[in-house]
Amino acid sequence: MNPKVKNILEWIYCIIIAIALALVVRYFIGTPTIVQQRSMYPTLKPNERLILNRIPITFHSDIKRGEIITFEAPSVIQRNSDEVDLANPVAIYDNEPKSIWNKFVYYVLEWGKTSYIKRVIGLPGEHIQIKDDKVYINGEEYNEPYLDSSVKTPQDGPFIDLIVPEGYIFAMGDNRGQSTDCRAFGCIPIDKIEGKVAFRFWPLNKFGNPDKK
User: Taking CA atoms, which of 28, 53, 91, 96 is between 20 and 30 Å from 109?
Assistant: First the structure.
């Protein structure tokens, strides 16, 4: 083989391997992300940079209450009370890609995919109630130390009194008055969770766990 052609092919192989490794790390281990909305304010502010830990999702580790997660946005983000079934209070996902290539582009490259960042509140089998601007889990008021004492939880949306189905979680943003979350669209399938927030790396003066003030 011509040495020049061989050298070019070796470079192509190296580039392909590097891209493949980068995609594996990004999809299965961890990836950076940018906060774009104010739904987690003041815990997280727009343009802050985070690292998502995808290892727990890859190995199906338990999701814990209070963790900040990202997940694929539902197809319908605002539901009306007269069209929901509280016996099955789950979010709608009807934009599943059909072909293998489209699935790769959507789930691995994440082109055209919208993600939300929220905090886990309710776990499978739990009774979630939002009343009097407070959150109740299995009939007991839930203390949320990461929120300022002045924060109230409005009864915004039809999903404010429900049992979280098996395989699902109930999540809300910390900025309760300006967060479109499970109150509006229903419980999220655990398999739609993309990762847990590991730490904030930008701005540098806020490096570390975003829940630590």
Answer: 91
